[in-house]
Write a sequence for this structure.
């Protein structure tokens, strides 16, 4: 007998996570007993010395790194209330956190003896405050993790430990966003955005041998999209849909999924072909979204969308040809699009797309003030468009800058100018210094609304696996192995494929050692 046979199984697993350290406490006794405690059950036959929160008392707990879930409190006080404030930074537990998408600030009533659980967000810190008029006793408190129990089978190791840590942090960032589907951010927006998802898909494919969440997420979007409408109601996001499908197919060989949705795929391609004028100029309708930093520049958006349309048609052609379908219209579309080469107006996101699609080499734009006007979302494409050594320098300084200020996952937005006279996300406020979380951010992600676990910022992981380790899928079942170490002494790592793990080792002498699973073909130019 199975009592759960009629239930829907959650793909995630529950874990418990102890408190790592006490950041701050006031009017609290014995808060230190919560640190590293693995007790998550009430004790009734005798009462050990509890944590006591006096009226007006509060404690800020640090779990060591960000995770998805909530907390379990085992109280020993009847008719008492606590205020819980979850934060990706210490300052978020102290300020007026935005309540969009997931609750991070709540006044809760505690049971006596019972186990009380609350939380469904990504956080690292939690502030617990006693807003009652009497003492609140807590027997134990522990983090409750709700995440997919996935093994990271991909790997990246080099002579630069900073790059190694950045690769791992990028993968962890996406893992936090792998909830029911692939979210852009598990604190905010908790939405399946097709465009935002492309860097996440690339990271999943280089790190996890179970990519089923990619299929599930794309299938969800297909089922939610009305006929003759763009995905997410954003026409450029339908471009990312086709690009993502080809990337997914190359690694997984999942032709069944492509064939099941072929009519929808063809309708998206046909819709976007109709937005190419006879002179090759794209005329994608509103909403013409490239990324937030270029919303103020029609010229930059046009250049980026022109290149994005070309990339879409390139991917669409390869996808259709692989499954034996006619792709002549996609070839014509590419010819038209190549006849018009717009200027990126000095903006790096469109310059990167122009470069990697072959429409125009605009690495000059990317080389100008190379550490300024970098985008977490388009960072992956900027890295792809740059030579290897400058790309590695950018990774170390830009993504490494987040690590230097306490990041255990990468952020929705970041600017190196923020680090001047600022304190880290794991610190209490420092008089005279800027709060790198609450004082910054832009567009729709200002201040504490800003997500510090945002999957689109994971670009260094696929870049390091593809460019530096050199493993690039060119077609289903076909891979190119071309390590490019840049300024590194050695690199070694693994990349999952439908046939098993690809293993590569290389050093500065040019020696390359590979272990290729049977069934996978290595393509050489």
């Amino acid at each position: 007998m199975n009592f759960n046979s009629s239930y829907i199984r959650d793909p995630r697993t529950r874990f418990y996570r102890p408190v790592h350290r006490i950041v701050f406490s006031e009017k609290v006794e014995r808060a230190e007993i919560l640190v590293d405690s693995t007790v998550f059950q009430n004790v009734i036959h005798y009462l050990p010395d509890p944590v006591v929160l006096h009226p007006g008392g509060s404690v800020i707990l640090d779990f060591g790194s960000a995770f998805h879930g909530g907390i379990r409190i085992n109280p020993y006080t009847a008719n008492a209330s606590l205020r819980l404030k979850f934060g990706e930074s210490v300052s978020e537990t102290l300020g007026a956190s935005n309540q969009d998408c997931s609750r991070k600030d709540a006044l809760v009533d505690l049971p006596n003896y019972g186990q009380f659980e609350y939380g469904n967000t990504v956080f690292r810190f939690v502030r617990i405050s006693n807003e009652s008029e009497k003492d609140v006793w807590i027997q134990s408190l522990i983090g409750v993790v709700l995440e997919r129990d996935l093994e990271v089978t991909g790997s990246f190791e080099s002579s630069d430990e900073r790059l190694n840590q950045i690769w791992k942090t990028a993968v962890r960032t996406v893992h936090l966003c792998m909830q029911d589907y692939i979210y852009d951010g598990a604190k905010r927006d908790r939405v399946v955005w097709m465009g935002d998802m492309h860097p996440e898909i690339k990271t999943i494919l280089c790190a996890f041998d179970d990519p089923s969440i990619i299929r599930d997420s794309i299938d969800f979007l297909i089922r939610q999209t009305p006929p003759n409408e763009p995905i997410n109601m954003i026409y450029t996001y339908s471009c990312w849909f086709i690009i993502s499908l080809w990337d997914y197919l190359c690694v997984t060989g999942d032709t069944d999924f492509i064939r099941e949705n072929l009519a929808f795929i063809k309708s998206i391609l046909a819709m976007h072909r109709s937005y190419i004028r006879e002179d090759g100029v794209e005329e994608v309708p509103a909403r013409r979204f490239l990324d937030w930093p270029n919303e103020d520049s029609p010229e930059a958006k046009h250049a980026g969308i022109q290149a994005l349309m070309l990339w879409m048609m390139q991917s669409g052609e390869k996808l259709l040809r692989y499954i034996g379908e006619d792709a002549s219209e996609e070839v014509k579309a590419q010819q038209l699009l190549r006849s018009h080469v717009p200027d990126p107006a000095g903006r790096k996101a469109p310059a990167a797309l122009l470069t990697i699609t072959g429409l125009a080499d605009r690495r000059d734009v990317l080389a100008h003030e190379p550490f300024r006007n970098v985008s977490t979302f388009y960072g992956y494409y900027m890295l792809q468009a740059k030579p290897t050594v400058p790309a590695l320098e950018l990774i170390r300084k830009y993504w490494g800058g987040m690590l230097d200020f306490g990041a255990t996952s990468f952020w929705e937005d970041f600017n190196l100018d923020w680090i001047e006279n600022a304190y880290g996300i794991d610190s209490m406020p420092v008089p005279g210094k800027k709060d790198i979380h609450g004082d910054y951010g832009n567009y729709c992600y200002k201040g504490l609304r800003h997500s510090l676990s945002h999957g689109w910022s994971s670009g260094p992981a696929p870049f390091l696996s593809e460019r530096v380790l050199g493993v690039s899928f060119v077609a289903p079942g076909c891979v190119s192995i071309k390590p490019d170490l840049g300024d590194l002494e050695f690199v070694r790592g693994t990349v999952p494929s439908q046939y098993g793990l690809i293993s590569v080792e290389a050093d500065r002498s040019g020696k390359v050692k590979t272990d290729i699973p049977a069934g996978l073909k290595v393509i050489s130019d």
